[in-house]
Amino acid sequence: MSQRQPPKVDGGKISRRDFLKLLAAAGTVMTFTPFVEWGKFLPNPRESSEERAKVVLPDGSQANVNTFKVNHAEAVVYPMSEDPVLNEEAFRTWQFIRLPAELGGEKNDASAFRMYSMVCLHLWCLWKYWPEEGRKRGECPCHGSMYDPLTGEAFAGPAALQAPPSNVLPSLDLEVDDEGNIWIKPPNWTPSGNGVVGYGRFLT
Ligand code: FES
């Protein structure tokens, strides 16, 4: 059985012939590397719609103030793409929270709800809301950052030590129609507006 020969080295230098072979191999790899359009990876202003969008729950229904439980959260995709693969991107994943009663979650209007990017501001793991007594906060499983459900501000762990705007989660603005259906208002993807996913938001 013939064995593959390592590139010949001449006085510490690779030979011209082997250098050309390596160049050809690198070209082949580049040719077959899947092409990913970088701009498609993140939600960005180009995708922002002037129209409001439904808060679509995992069961496909639109969130409604009359049925969504107090002190409860679901993961929601925004902006929703027609490509199901893109909809699985962490950068499109938001935690839709109805606040606990003591923080105003029993009100029947948009003030009872919050919608924050689930990408932790520390190193981009996905955090989630824990409704249990004694918790009622967002927690990241990676290094323990904790987020205030009322504001999205990190109050413990490494994300809390980061300078603004990287200590406050991006947040989407919500509104409720006459039937109680909940909608996402068109966002402003800047740190002073709704924030930048994975980077943060200035608290106003
Ligand atoms: S990635 Fe969330 S605490 Fe480090």
From TrEMBL:
Its EC number is 1.10.9.1. InterPro entries: Rieske_2Fe-2S (IPR017941), Rieske_2Fe-2S_sf (IPR036922), Rieske_Fe-S_prot (IPR014349), TAT_signal (IPR006311), TAT_signal_bac_arc (IPR019546). The keyword Transport does not apply. It is an enzyme of class 1 (oxidoreductase). Residues 77-175 form the Rieske domain. Pfam families: Rieske (PF00355), TAT_signal (PF10518). GO terms for molecular function: 2 iron, 2 sulfur cluster binding; metal ion binding; oxidoreductase activity. Coiled coil: none annotated. The keyword Transcription regulation does not apply. Keywords: 2Fe-2S, Disulfide bond, Iron, Iron-sulfur, Metal-binding, Oxidoreductase. NCBIfam families: TAT_signal_seq. This is Cytochrome b6-f complex iron-sulfur subunit. It comes from Candidatus Nitrosocosmicus franklandianus. The gene is petC.
